[in-house]
Amino acid sequence: MLRILRFSLLLAVLALSRSVLAVDLDKGKEINGTCAACHSDNGQGGKKGEYPRIAGQQVKYIESQLKSFRARTRVNIPMFPYTQERELSDEDIKDIAAYLAGIELDTKMPTYAGHEDALTRLLMAEKVMIIPRAEGDLANGEKIYQKQCAACHGKTGKGRGMFPMLVGQYTSYLQRQVDLYLKGDRPHDEEGMTGLLNALKAQDIQDILAYLTSIQEPKE
């Protein structure tokens, strides 16, 4: 019995190793060259939230959204030509998702040692992403978020599995997605066209967004 369990464990480890090895991060970085035109080299997004942050996002979420864009189940005209099967295969999607998920963006400006040249300092600063604080009742936002949102998006807003990271995302982008959910143009994670967000007041949503901007920096 013990020998069978060891053999089963070995097979599981080998399967996991093959899965990890199947991801080509160099290919993901190469593909990101196309994404960078809108989302920037480090995946920060841009134009004050017109293009969302994708750096550090959950792997499964990135994969699912790219496949949704490709299938047009999530309509986004600018994304369509880049996600068609001839442009972005399932293998490519796995590679770019893994690469983006591994990018870490600092929430504090770097401390320079003094010997860096101008380009090095610029590159260091570009990896910093600090979202401006949004106005709202932080206590109310925290209360609602932890009760209604944390189960899927995590207590610190970093996402979980198929559910995206919210903390460190542009507030304007999150508000735009909320508006799409409320209008039914983009289904939330629940079945049907309405969900949890439809039960919240506009001020409650604003308070949640404000709370998310207050927890960007990890506590010491």
Tell me what you see in this structure.
The chain has 220 residues and is an all-alpha fold. The chain folds into two domains: 22-105 and 116-129, Orthogonal Bundle (Cytochrome Bc1 Complex, Chain D, domain 2), CATH 1.10.760.10; 138-214, Cytochrome Bc1 Complex, Chain D, domain 2. It has nine helices and no strands. The protein has helices at residues 2-21, 25-39, 59-71, 80-83, 90-101, 118-126, 138-153, 171-183, 202-214. α2 packs across α5 and α3 packs antiparallel against α5 (90-101). The longest helix has 20 residues, at 2-21. It is globular and about 45 Å long.
Distance between the termini: 47 Å
| Broad CATH class of the largest domain | Mainly Alpha
Order of helices and strands: HHHHHHHHH
Number of discrete domains: 2
Q: Which CATH architecture of the largest domain is right?
A: Orthogonal Bundle
Q: Give the low-confidence spans.
A: none
Counting DSSP H or I runs of 4 or more residues, the number of helices is: 9
Any idea what the shape is?
globular
Strand proportion:
under 5%
CATH evolutionary superfamily of the largest domain: Cytochrome c-like domain
What profile does the largest beta sheet have?
Answer: none
Helix content: 40-55%
Report the strand count.
Answer: 0
Topology:
Blueprint: H1 2-21, H2 25-39, H3 59-71, H4 80-83, H5 90-101, H6 118-126, H7 138-153, H8 171-183, H9 202-214
In brief, what are we looking at here?
With 220 residues, the chain is mostly helical. The protein has two domains: 22-105 and 116-129, Cytochrome Bc1 Complex, Chain D, domain 2; 138-214, Cytochrome Bc1 Complex, Chain D, domain 2, CATH 1.10.760.10. The chain is 52% helix and 0% strand.
